[in-house]
Write a structure and sequence with these properties.
68% of the residues lie in helices and 0% in strands. With 162 residues, the chain is mainly α.
C-alpha cells in the first residue's frame, strides 16, 4: 500500500500543478476537491471532512490564500493508507450512483463483491472493475471524474495487491 499512496500522491501533485497553471479560483479549488472526494474518503475520512469545512468557509477571493494550506492538508491526508473498511465504504457510496440504473441481481453482485473484499477474500480490483463496467454502461459524469476510480490511469493494476 505505500506504493499505492505514493502513486496517488504523485497524481495529486501533478493535478495540483496543472491547476496552478490557471487561475486558482474558488470554483477551480472546489472542482479539484470534488474529484478527490472518494480518494480522500478512502484514505482519511476525518480529514476529508476537515478539508470540506475549510473550503466551505472560503470567501470569494480566498482561493489563492487558502490553496497552499488546502494542498498541504490534502497531501497529509493522502499519506495515510486506506483501510479495507474505508475502501468498502467508498465502493458502497459509488454503487449508490447506480441504484436507478441496474437491476436487483447486479446490485446484489456488487454488494457481495464489496463484502468479499472487506473480508479479505478478493483484491480491491474486483469490485472496482465491476463498478467501472456498470459505469461504462450507465455513465455518471460526477463519478467518472473521480480520481478514486483512476488513481493512475496510465498504469492500471497496482490495486490488485490490496
Amino acid at each position: 500500500m505505500p506504493r499505492e499512496n505514493a502513486i496517488i500522491r504523485m497524481r495529486a501533485r501533478s493535478d495540483w500543478q496543472q491547476l496552478l497553471q490557471g487561475d486558482l479560483s474558488r470554483h477551480a479549488l472546489m472542482s479539484f476537491h470534488a474529484r478527490y472526494k472518494y480518494q480522500l474518503m478512502a484514505n482519511n475520512p476525518s480529514q476529508y471532512r476537515v478539508l470540506g469545512k475549510l473550503l466551505g468557509s472560503m470567501g470569494r477571493s480566498d482561493a489563492t490564500e487558502l490553496g497552499p494550506r488546502y494542498f498541504s492538508l490534502l497531501m497529509n491526508a493522502l499519506n495515510r493508507c486506506a483501510t479495507r473498511g474505508n475502501h468498502a465504504n467508498v465502493l458502497l457510496h459509488l454503487s449508490g450512483y447506480l441504484r436507478h440504473s441496474i437491476n436487483a441481481q447486479d446490485k446484489q453482485e456488487i454488494r457481495q463483491l464489496i463484502e468479499a473484499y472487506r473480508q479479505g477474500a478478493i483484491p480491491l480490483a474486483a469490485p472496482i472493475d465491476l463498478l467501472k463496467h456498470h459505469f461504462e454502461q450507465h455513465p455518471d459524469p460526477y463519478v467518472l471524474q473521480q480520481v478514486y476510480l483512476q488513481p493512475h490511469p496510465e498504469a492500471p493494476g497496482p490495486r490488485n495487491a490490496l
